[in-house]
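@channel sequence for tomorrow's demo:
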Amino acid sequence: MTRTIHEQLQALHGVIIEERECAKALDVVALQAVTQRKDALLAQLELEGDLSPEDRQLADTIRFENRRNAYLLWSALNWIRESMEFFGRKTVPDAYTPAGGMVSKGMGADFCPGGCNGFSCCTQYRKNQPFCQSEIHRGCRQ
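structure tokens (generated this afternoon):
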């Protein structure tokens, strides 16, 4: 069954709104499924000739909503990048040994260098123990 252009545009508008809701809920699995549906709808969309004023208005709304979603996803990506940069910064300044040599404490002291990246499991042991003592992350070097 072929759908009219107006029905196709309405379906696309609904999927774009659903895409935003998935992004706001941080539901990555549903977001990927919705994005695939949106791609399929865009591939099926057949715009030929001039659109009616009603369809033109709906297409403009779709363009606006899609740009809004793009900005939401772009700003979220930038926030993640800034967060990763923040946690990758050196948190402990360089120090000197009694002999006068410089000792660098390294980068990202808030992450476990053993790869577990866990604040709760590793930071509680950082003060006096050289290894992560969590059962899940046993043996991660601190």
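heads up for whoever presents: The first strand starts at residue 95 and ends at 96.
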